[in-house]
Design goal:
The chain is α+β, with helices and mostly antiparallel strands. It folds into two domains: 51-126 and 393-456, Uridine Diphospho-n-acetylenolpyruvylglucosamine Reductase, domain 2 (2-Layer Sandwich); 135-391 and 457-513, Cytochrome P450 (Cytochrome p450, Orthogonal Bundle), CATH 1.10.630. Helix content is 47%, strand content 10%. It has a six-stranded mixed β-sheet. A four-stranded antiparallel β-sheet has the order 5-6-14-11. A two-stranded antiparallel sheet has the order 8-9. Strand 8 and strand 9 (409-411) form a beta hairpin. Helix 1 packs across helix 11 (230-252) and helix 11 (230-252) packs antiparallel against helix 12 (267-293). The longest helix is centred in the middle third of the chain and has 27 residues, at 267-293. It is globular, with a radius of gyration of 23 Å. Mean pLDDT is 88; it is low at 1-42. The structure holds protoporphyrin IX containing FE. Residues 29-30, 144-145, 156, 163, 219, 322-323, 327, 330-331, 334, 391, 457-459, 461, 463-467, 470-471, 475 line the site of protoporphyrin IX containing FE.
Length: 520
């Protein structure tokens, strides 16, 4: 049964593997299921019978349809229809919950005001609507993305220093080595179809297949540094394979959501234990090895916070799990969209190629400077691609802990709130009448303060993506590498893979080598 037809997030055990895996990528990055995990402030008030009203007593427009799955699979169509029928602020159902949806920057600004709460009781909490139950709690409830309030601040304080801009830039030369190998090997990828027998002939490949595993090594290397040789990487990859099965169960196995399930000798439980114990041992041993070799890696420094009693060992291991295993799909999908956009607009591609021609890709500083520039064409094209392809149509909701007046309506505390990302990113009042067109130059015409609450990419509130300094570099690096060696064309119409949780493109790219020499 497809998740599109299931009546509850956990009601289908038989989600196709691809769906399960991608739901895994809910990026636990964005994740949120924290509220169910032993949290006392469970005061979700927006039940089906609760109406939100304005000062004249008028009800906020409401769509009485359960959107828990359609908001991901058909989020664009759903959002377009609801904005047209209900206006810029509305509620829709998420199972038994009535959830508030925002599309206007000024409303989003109010929503996020004091979201972290100086007083913890006023901080946003994560929504119960997407709680995944006991199985996931056993391996991810201690990760940063699941926390809120003071616990979240404590972990972020310990982790943030290792993901600052300088760290990301320092990681580029090491990443570049893997991107070189990726480009050389792409033609031989099992999913690639050669359009001739000569290495000079083009080949075609689905964009997501091309980029699928690329970010994993990049992020792993950023964390484990020089210590991560082939032997360690092989071990990490084996853990990744177990993690895929674990996530599939966490999201698709209804029984696994129940507390009693942990006591049964199922394969899912064995996998969970194997992953938890295996990853704990991996981290412990690789940190020890790094220290022995004198390598000052991110993992070593993060482990220092465990030794100093700032975070627990579970918080350390689970936050690394979230960063490494759960973020693969989010970043690879962003890479796929970026290449598809470049492949779709040949004139932009040629201008980009002319720009990258002046970057010496064997000079680490030149590469880092180029990838981190916020004024070059690469940056403009990357921003435009990110604007038009949010990774979720609706972000993962948070629950407000104090009553707010948003868009003229009294929003009670306990209301679960989410953002219609595409409608924010294409709001004509901010982005102009051509807001849905691909026009990178618009980013030269508008200042970042003008779109501060109108560009959903790494989060719009004070709680933002931990990888936001790394992700753009990883995505741009793919484009740099491709443009130096190949001409790319988007050869099929771009559709969405609606069986995926993230907004995933379904389209193929044709790669035509520019010259032979890179293959040698
Ligand atoms: C293009 C790629 C990526 C995009 C678009 C993206 C986007 C996001 C978004 C929208 C959030 C939610 C922010 C919120 O709560 O409002 C998030 C959270 C998070 N992301 Fe990313 N992300 C990407 C890549 C990465 C990478 C590479 C890492 C690894 C370093 C990462 C680590 C995280 C973590 C740990 C969180 C949870 C942060 C917290 O709750 O404190 N992300 N990401």
């Amino acid at each position: 049964m497809s998740f599109l037809n299931s009546s509850s997030l956990t009601s289908s055990i038989t989600l196709p593997t691809s769906v399960q895996n991608n739901w895994a990528a809910v990026g636990l990055a964005f994740l949120s299921a924290g509220a169910v995990f032993g949290v006392s402030r469970t005061f979700i008030s927006s039940s089906r019978s609760t109406y939100i009203i304005n000062s004249s007593g008028e009800r906020l427009p409401h769509a009485d349809e359960d959107t828990r799955f359609s908001r991901f699979s058909h989020g664009k169509e759903l959002g377009d229809r609801l904005v047209k029928e209900l206006g810029p602020i509305y509620t829709f159902q998420s199972g038994t919950l009535r959830e508030l949806v925002l599309t206007q920057p000024e409303d989003i600004k109010v929503y996020y005001r004091d979201a972290l709460g100086k007083d913890e009781s006023k901080a946003h909490i994560k929504s119960l609507a997407i709680s995944f139950g006991d199985y996931m709690r056993r391996f991810l409830s201690q990760s940063v993305g699941f926390k809120f309030g003071n616990d979240w601040k404590r972990i972020r304080d310990a982790v943030d220093p290792h993901f600052i801009r300088k760290m990301a830039l320092d990681a580029v030369p090491n990443m570049k080595i893997d991107y070189d190998s990726w480009m050389k090997a792409l033609r031989g990828n099992a999913a690639a179809v050669a359009k001739g027998s000569s290495p000079n002939d083009p080949f075609e490949i689905e964009a997501v297949a091309a980029t699928k595993e690329l970010p994993f090594k990049a992020i792993a290397k950023s964390i484990y540094g020089e210590t991560l040789n082939d032997k360690w990487y092989e071990r990490l990859w084996e853990l990744h394979m177990i993690h895929e099965r674990v996530m599939a169960n966490a999201i698709g196995n209804k029984n696994a959501t129940k507390a009693w399930y942990r006591f049964f000798p199922t394969q899912a439980n064995k996998d969970l234990r194997a992953f938890k114990n295996g990853y704990k041992a991996f981290n412990f041993e690789i940190v020890a090895e790094s220290e022995k070799l004198g390598y000052d890696t991110v993992a070593v420094r993060m482990y220092g916070s465990v030794a100093d009693g700032l975070i627990s060992e579970d918080e350390f291991n689970q936050t690394l799990d979230e960063i490494l295993f759960a973020n693969i799909d989010v970043t690879s999908v962003a890479q796929a969209w970026f290449l598809l956009d470049i492949g779709k607009y040949p004139d932009i591609q040629e201008r980009l190629r002319a720009e990258v021609a002046s970057v010496d890709e064997y000079d680490p500083k030149a590469v880092a400077d180029y990838l981190s520039s916020t004024t070059n064409l690469m940056h403009l094209v990357h921003s435009e691609s990110a604007r038009l392809h949010p990774i979720l149509w609706y972000n993962i909701p948070e629950v407000i802990s104090v009553e707010k007046n948003i868009g003229g309506y009294h929003i009670p505390r306990g209301t679960s709130v989410c953002i219609s990302t595409y409608h924010v990113n294409t709001n004509p009042a901010i982005w102009g009448s051509d807001s849905t067109s691909f026009r990178p130059e618009r980013f030269k015409e508008i200042s970042s303060s003008q779109y501060r609450h109108a560009f959903w990419r790494y989060g719009l509130g004070p709680r933002q993506c931990l990888g936001k300094n790394f992700a753009p570099l990883i995505v741009k690096l793919v484009a740099l590498k491709v443009l130096k060696t190949h001409r790319i064309e988007t050869v099929t119409d771009v559709d969405f893979d609606r069986m995926q949780f993230t907004v995933t493109p379904k389209a193929a790219l044709r790669f035509t080598p520019l010259r032979m020499s890179f293959l040698s």
